[in-house]
Amino acid sequence: MVIISAPPPTSCTSFLKSSALAAARHSSTASTTSSTTATAFASRSSFVFSGSSNGAVTSFDLVLRAAAASSKSVRGMAEFGDVNQRRDSTTAAAAALEASGSSSSCSTSDELSLPLNFVDFRSEEEMLYGIRKAAESGRISLNISRSMEELYQNYRNAVFKSGDSKAPEVALSNMSMLFDRIFVDVKDPFEFSSYHKAIREPFDYYTFGQNYIRPLIDFRNSYIGNLSLFDDIRVKLQRGENIVMMSNHQTEADPAVIALLLESTHPDLAENMIYVAGDRVITDPLCKPFSMGRNLLCVYSKKHMNDVPALADMKRRANTKSLKEMALLLRAGSALIWIAPSGGRDRPDPHTGEWYPAQFDLSSVDNMRRLVEHAGVPGHLYPLAILCHDIMPPPLEVEKEIGEKRVISFHGTGLSVGAEIDFHDLAASLDDPEKAKTAYTHALYDSVTEQYEVLKYAVHGKQGLEASIPSVLLSQPWQ
Is the whole model's pTM more than 0.90, yes or no? Predict the structure, then answer.
């Protein structure tokens, strides 16, 4: 297990300068361009959006032609929250520096100069004191401060369950870093573009996310299925071909879990994977620092499309931009895209409490397949199963409000990829195109379900490697 220790103390002034630099380098710009035909397609499509796929083929082709004619990718998602363009980062940093004074050190005992540079805090008491004083001074909201305290307690307890002798230091260090990033974003909110590239400098958000989730995974009771297929995927990507992982979705930590289980054998796949992400993970203050470290195609989930009816059209326009971004990425080749065709996270059966992959949406699967086929580059769709709900389970029911309660645990996890499923091979035996679409969706889902059951027997059933079956060979390459 990799342990990260708290970094050396830094001054308030240097901290604010660093924050200003990060904001200046990574501020996003809002694009005001919009394709009428693309909007029409998005309004009819339910790729990860809403509506029906009936009659979408013509609009789909027009979207691809529009994307091909574009000289550069669409950058900007001002529709998220319908906000104005971000204020100038340099001006904001100058104001912060002026407010902080010229002192080169920060005192947690001086209420007026409390820095909220959380990486400087050396004890749980100091950190919690800093959170409370930040709320009292109005620098963060009371709701955020309460969520931060609750998250710290849950995370600390989970890390302690790992039995690591350095659990107290690990918990304090990782939570201090998270709170530091939250505070930076509260002061100068980061806005995600339709296609967001992981931020690796001057602050490495990817590594931060990996180190935060790592202590929550019981690697002794974690497994990966069909490791050799990940080798095949790597070869195809190196040839310039596209790969789409059709996956179930369990927790906000899925990207980190996937990356950590691939870290010892396929770190290149882990770092280059692009996740189709709902708007909630780029708007929730506690999620944003983790999302900033991933490659994302940002969309509004169809499950939340009509939470606020007045915003539905705006959300569709935003999704159109993301659709064009995806088309451009696929046309360029060597794209590795993860998508959950269910449109959201798995939930347990309300009667039995058993977890299982949520059903795949036929329109989402079919639209993704057609995007891949029309890219002009060879593409492949693979079924991917992930089991990690114990680490950070979602609420039992879908919630409309941002800011869900985080329950965190130390637990075993699992990841498995199934053999590629070719649509045309399957459709050759069927004379009805609609039946072929349905059969293809079921084939992908059935593979994910089969792999998930094997992972469940291995992790929850304590069968370990013996849970393997001919189509799902488990291993632990990190051992």
Answer: no
